[in-house]
Amino acid sequence: MKVKLPEENSGFTLYAEGNLFDMEYIQGNTILTFSDSHILALYYTYPNHRRLYMVCAKTKGVKTTLPCIDKPVSIIYKARGRRFDDIKNAMYFLKTHSDGEYVLYPLIFYRELAILAEQKRLKNWKINSLCLKHNLRLNNLEEEK
């Protein structure tokens, strides 16, 4: 799945986080290529609001098109406001404690992460418990105490 980063004057910014395969610069545009079968977190920031989409191109379900994405995707979770921040913080926690392997975690893990976010229960110890449930290893957790 390809993500074209928006130009500076497009009215919004986009940050994409996932299993990155390639980065190209074509005619002044940055094109990122991500895995179709793993989660991709898209953080859209507009002047008056922020929007998060956790998507996957190879899952079953209703497909939708999003700005700057080359193909229709299934939305695993979408959020704005406080949930946007909760997921962003959770992804940072996973990034720092999984040696970057979090982008390869199974989709069911991210579905359950989204449930925790909706229930306003997305704390680091809950993320760790979720990782243990799915036999996913996290490290350097002593620093969090």
- Helix vs. strand class: alpha+beta
Query: Distance N terminus to C terminus?
Result: 38 Å
Annotation field: number of helices: 3
Overall number of domains: 1
Query: Biggest sheet: strands side by side, in what order?
Result: 2-5-6-7
Q: pLDDT under 50 segments (min length 5)?
A: none
Strand content: 25-35%
Give me the Rg, rounded. 15 Å
Q: What is the ordering of alpha helices and beta strands? A: EEEEEEEHHH
3D shape: globular
Number of strands: 7
Mean pLDDT: 91
| Helix share bin | 25-40%
Main sheet record: 4 strands, antiparallel
Describe this entry's structure for a reader.
- The chain has three helices and seven strands, in the order βββββββααα.
- It is α+β, with helices and mostly antiparallel strands and 145 residues long.
- The chain has one domain.
- The strands form two sheets. A four-stranded antiparallel β-sheet has the order 2-5-6-7, covered by helices on one side.
- A hairpin with a 2-residue loop joins β3 and β4.
- The longest helix has 16 residues.
- It starts with a strand and ends in a 12-residue tail after the last helix.
- The model has no long low-confidence stretch (mean pLDDT 91).
